[in-house]
Design brief:
mainly beta, two-stranded antiparallel sheet, 10% helix, 2 domains, three-stranded antiparallel sheet, 104 residues
Length: 104
């Protein structure tokens, strides 16, 4: 007989403090959480950001399409999957198409 693992359970938010608000782009929170086994985790950081689409596109010859651009956080040019914010009222598929077509 095979043991079936339990379904993962959600964590309970005990406290949530907004520490940085750059609306509408992102908000940063520090939370205290209670895990399903009863342990408490303090100082857990979460970020809320706008919905976005990330595209994993593969060419007919099996290559993955990426774009290179400067990322200030890393102070370097990086390769990344095409991605972008989903505009209000826009379908995720339409945002993905728009971003993929914008790849140079």
């Amino acid at each position: 007989m095979t043991d079936i693992p339990e379904e993962p359970q959600p964590w309970q938010v005990v406290t949530r403090t907004l520490t940085y608000d750059a609306s509408p782009w992102l908000r940063h929170y520090v939370e205290t959480l209670r895990l399903p086994d009863g342990r408490v985790v303090a100082d857990f950081h979460t970020v809320d950001a706008l919905e976005h689409a990330v595209i994993f596109a593969v060419t007919e010859d099996g290559l993955v399409i990426t774009e290179r651009h400067y990322r200030h956080a890393t102070r370097d040019v990086c390769a990344a999957l095409p991605a972008g914010y989903i505009e209000p009222g826009e379908a995720p598929e339409d945002a993905a198409k728009r971003e993929l077509l914008a790849v140079p």
